[in-house]
Structures are given as C-alpha cells and as structure tokens.
TrEMBL record:
Quaternary state and interactors: Interacts with RET in the pituitary gland; this interaction prevents the formation of the AIP-survivin complex.
Protein keywords: Cytoplasm, Phosphoprotein, Repeat, TPR repeat
Gene name linked to the record: Aip
Compartment(s) of residence: Cytoplasm
The protein's name: AH receptor-interacting protein
Keyword Translocase: no
Signal peptide from the UniProt entry: none
Organism: Steatornis caripensis (Oilbird)
Keyword tRNA-binding: no
Lineage: Eukaryota, Metazoa, Chordata, Craniata, Vertebrata
Function: May play a positive role in AHR-mediated (aromatic hydrocarbon receptor) signaling, possibly by influencing its receptivity for ligand and/or its nuclear targeting.
Length: 239
C-alpha cells in the first residue's frame, strides 16, 4: 500500500475517459496540490471522502488480455513513416482473415486503416511522381477490397465513388468496373451497369459466365420491379 494523496484527481480523469469526456474536465491550469484544496467536490462522493481523508490505497488490477510481444498495433496516427509501411501488409492480412470469417464490417475497418497509412505517406509526395504512383498502386487493391465489403454492407454509393476514382486513373481495372457495375445494378442505374459489365467482358472475356450471371440477376429484378409497379399503379389513371 502507498499513501497516494493525489489519487482522487487521477481517478476523476480516468472516470472522465471511461465516460467519453475530456480527462481534464473541471480542472484549472494550476498545480495538482492547489486543485486538491481548491475543489469543493470532484463530483464523486467516494473521491470527495478520500480527498478529505487521505489514506493508504491498495490497487486491485485485473488482467483482461495478454498480447504476445510485437502483436500490439498502434493507431496509424501514432506511427512513424517506416512503421506505417511495415504495418500495411499485416493490417491487409488481418482484413483478409476477418473477411474469410464473415466479419465484413471489421474487415472493412482494417482495410480502411491500411489505406489511411498509405494515404498519409502519399500526401508527402508530389502527385504523379514515381513514389506517389508506387503508393497509389498499393492503395488500389486495398480500396477494391474495401469496396467489396461495402457492397456486402449495401453501401452502394460509396462503392460508386471509390471505383470511379480508381477508373479515373486506371482505365483498365477490371475489378473496379465489375464492382461498380454491381453497385449501379443495385441502385437501378441499368444503362450504367450494363456499360460497366460490357467493359469487363471487353477487358477479360473469360469472365463471361460471371457477368452473364449478374446480368440475368439484374433482368430478373427488373421484371419483378415492373410487375410490382403495375400492381402499385393499377387504376391510377382510370380514376
């Protein structure tokens, strides 16, 4: 046990953090001892009592998780440039594993972190320079994986935006056309979907079975939608 006079203030900060508040909420910019005597209440009865009557404390620490050495992963903002480059393949692999497990939103978050690392590095390079292009070519497959997750999460307009940004730079990216075609089909942009799928076949004829399946699915959905519309609007114009 230790005689910890300033612990009430530390505990208040920790409780603020747990509640999503500013850890220094309610504290003024003066020394801790002055704050200790100046504050009438810390907002917690147990801490007020401990502040009035300091006493030896025993800390009971519960181990929630044990991580292997080297397994802790910093947030991208806290990494050096070298650490970002080293982390990207690991984060990419984690995203792939989560996707295989069916944890699609979690996989998308991993791909997003990897993209953020590379985008941060890319911002420091001259657009169009060899280093910028090299980073962009690493970003593209991650962004396509992210789009695949967003397709499954039915966030189609985000897929349209990202795939279009890829195709503005890489006009022969088959995967971007295919994913954009699926997103167009999902939001009833029929002509755009058909154009994207036609581009997929022009670039890679071996994908005809997959594209044909997507087009049949689109046609079936259109027939179903037409039938629903006829029922919904039946008699409107004869009234």
């Amino acid at each position: 046990p230790q005689h910890v006079v300033l612990y009430p203030l530390v505990s208040k900060s920790l409780r603020n953090i747990a509640a999503g508040k500013d850890p220094l909420e309610g504290q003024r910019h003066c020394c801790s001892v002055a704050q200790l005597h100046e504050h009438y209440s810390l907002g917690y009865p147990d801490l007020d009592e401990l502040q009035k009557n300091p006493q030896p404390l025993i800390f009971d620490i519960e181990v929630l998780k044990v991580e292997a050495p080297g397994s802790y992963q910093q947030d991208p903002w806290a990494m050096t440039d070298e650490e970002k480059l080293q982390a990207v393949p690991l984060i990419h692999k984690e995203g792939n594993e989560l996707y295989r497990q069916g944890k699609v939103p979690e996989a998308a978050a991993k791909y997003y972190d990897a993209i953020a690392c590379l985008k941060n590095l890319q911002m420091k390079e001259q657009p169009g320079s060899p280093d910028w292009i090299e980073l962009d070519q690493k970003i593209t497959p991650l962004l396509l994986n992210y789009c695949q997750c967003k397709l499954q999460c039915e966030e189609y307009y985000e897929v349209l935006d990202h795939c279009s940004s890829i195709l503005n730079k890489y006009e022969d990216n088959v995967k971007a056309y295919f994913k954009r075609g699926k997103a167009h089909a999902a939001v009833w942009n029929v002509a755009e979907a058909q154009a994207d799928f036609a581009k997929v076949l022009a670039l890679d004829p071996s994908l005809r079975p997959v594209v044909s399946k997507e087009l049949r699915s689109l046609e079936a959905r259109l027939r179903e939608k037409d039938a629903e519309d006829k029922i919904r609007f039946k008699g409107i114009f004869s009234q």
